[in-house]
Structure formats: structure tokens, C-alpha cells
Amino acid sequence: MADPTHALDIAEPLTLGGDALDPIGGADVGVLVGYGRVSTKGQLLDRQVAALTAAGCHRIFTDKKSGKNAEREELWACLDYLRPGDTLVVPALDRLGRSLQDLISIVAGLRKRGIGFRSLHEALDTTTPGGRLVFHVFAALAEFIRELIVDGTNEGLAAARARGQRLGRPPAMNAEQIRQARAMLTRPDESVASIARLLGVSRGTLYKHLPELSGSRSTIDG
């Protein structure tokens, strides 16, 4: 199922869009819609549901999935249910987002749709100036962290190149394995398949690293 939040990749800038401190546009007065989540099926949602009900939620969606699981079906159903003027209410921030980036992406998506966001535990409410300010700071912090990660990665790659270090995946066969393969191929009772098994590689890998096999494939590929 497509992720309607369009969660942002670490390489993309994180922003709430427009002026994060402006009130959400639209004059519609909607309802409070709750979302709760526990990580495993053995955990209970009772306390979260009770808190969301006490907060006045008109409808409550719940998931029993890990926060790292992208297929949080009830969350996507909840986001689809929300309409302009509504407010999404969660018991705590970690019940909604898998990460700071994920959280900001979801809230930014809600904001663009004219939907508010409240977190009961942290007492955050993006329908108020103070709540909008907090998320503006969150977005700036997430962008700062992203830039630090990107800069650190680039510096690390540059340093590795300067040391002459080979970057990328290591070769499937090293020089010693190639030497052993060529030696075994001189034995008439050895086939490509048996040599590949002995070396722990695929037959395709052998053909890739031993070009001389191509011309004799039909005779030794037993």
C-alpha cells in the first residue's frame, strides 16, 4: 500500500512548508481523530484508547505493529479518514513516527491538508502558535542533523579515497579463489558446478571472473 505521508528520505530536506508559524488555513471546524499504537500483539491499547477518548476523540484508530513497520494499516486508514479542519490526536509522539524525520513528514503532510496535530503526553498542539513553533524547531533540528550526516559521509568517503581504500562492495571472488578455481579446472573430473560449490560462489560468478570459461562452457559445465 502506498504511504500517503510520502515519508522523506534522509537525503531530502525536511520542512513544514510555507510559514510554519502561520495558522492552518481554512475555516472548517472538524473533529478530533485519535491514533494509538503498541509494538506487539501482547501489549494492551487500553490506556491509550482511554486517554484519546478522554481527550474527546470522535473516532480512534489503533495498530499493533512496530514503529519501524511501514505497513501500519490503521495509521494509513486514519490519515485517509482525516478531513480539513480535523485534528489528529496521539497519546505520545513516539506512537506516531518511526523517527524524527518520519514524524515531521507526517505532520507536514497534515498541515498541507489543513489538519491539526496534538500529542497528549508532550502537550503539543499545532493548532496553537506555541505548538507550531515547537514543530518549526523540530524541522530545523532534523535538517541540521541531516546535513551533519551528509557532510560526515562525504568527508569519510573523501578520506577513504585519499588513503587509496577501495569503496563499494568487495569482489565476490578474491585472487586466491580465482587461482584455486583455475587449478581445479585442469582436473577432468571437476565441473564448473562442483568448483562453485567448493568455493562457495555461484556458477555465474565463476564465469564472470574466469573469462576463459566462456568458450568451453558446454564441455565443463556438468
Structure characteristics:
single chain, 222 residues, alpha/beta, Rossmann fold, 2 domains, 43% helix
Describe the structure.
The chain is α/β, with parallel strands linked by helices and 222 residues long. It has 2 domains: 1-168, Resolvase, N-terminal catalytic domain (Rossmann fold, 3-Layer(aba) Sandwich); 175-220. The chain has 8 helices and 5 strands; from the N terminus they run E-H-E-H-E-H-E-E-H-H-H-H-H. A 5-stranded mixed sheet has the order 2-1-3-4-5, with helices on both faces. Helix 5 runs antiparallel to helix 6. The two termini are 45 Å apart.
Uncertain parts: 1-14
CATH topology of the largest domain: Rossmann fold
Largest sheet: 5 strands, mixed
Count of helical regions = 8
Helix and strand content put the structural class at alpha/beta
Concise synopsis of the structure shown:
The protein is of the alpha/beta class and 222 residues long. It has helices spanning 46-54, 73-81, 100-112, 129-162, 175-185, 192-199, 203-209, 217-220, and strands at residues 32-38, 59-64, 87-90, 116-119, 124-125. Residues 31-164 form the Resolvase/invertase-type recombinase catalytic domain.
